[in-house]
Amino acid sequence: MAKWEAKEKRMDDIVNAAVAIFLDKGYEGASMEAIAKSAQISKGGLYHHFSSKDEILYYANEKLNEPIYEYVRLAAENPDPVAGIRCYIRNYISYWLAHKKELTFFFLTMIKAISSPEMWKIYEDYYNHMIAFLKTLYERGISSSQLAQHNTGASAITLMSALDGVLSYLVMNDNLELDAVIGDFEDKFINSVLIHKI
């Protein structure tokens, strides 16, 4: 195993251990020692990579969001902006539905962010980026005559809010039908502003 692969595996082990410990003990109940033990590294080894629980929490959150950033890239690069929005909605909901443990961790980090100005800034930047990305797709849809003129900023904010809002419902409800949820999102956030229904 190459040196970078070993480091990547160690970082993945730390993230997986941290997620499990934070979910089991809560943020306040988690300790660097417990995370190190669960990741099967020394406490000193853990401090070599991270100086605090906050750093681990930030890093784990970023790591778990990597698939979302990939979905953003794929949607943004799609030559058809409406198809890009559709793919993003499907990928976003499908990913979190298949990763409920990680989704619960996401909620835990949101709670922590409320009391941490540094972490709140990270979330603020994330949401501003996501809203700008969705707004751009809507604007491209208007420019390509696929979507009717409308307030693209409002559409981007409400779509992002609705996507994150449905996530809590996904955690609570095991009987959700993925296609039905995605269909509802497409009706409200795409079909309602389509010029030519497809």
Structure commentary:
- By secondary structure, the protein is mostly helical.
- 80% of the residues lie in helices and 0% in strands.
- It contains ten helices and no strands.
- It has helices spanning 3-29, 32-39, 43-49, 53-64, 66-77, 81-98, 100-114, 117-143, 152-172, 178-189.
- Helix 4 packs across helix 7 (100-114).
- The longest helix is centred in the N-terminal third of the chain and has 27 residues, at 3-29.
- It is elongated.
Cα separation of the termini: 49 Å
Quaternary structure type: single chain
Quickly count the helices. Answer: 10
User: What value does the Rg take, in angstroms?
Assistant: 19 Å
Main pleated sheet? none
Helix content: over 70%
Low-confidence stretches: none
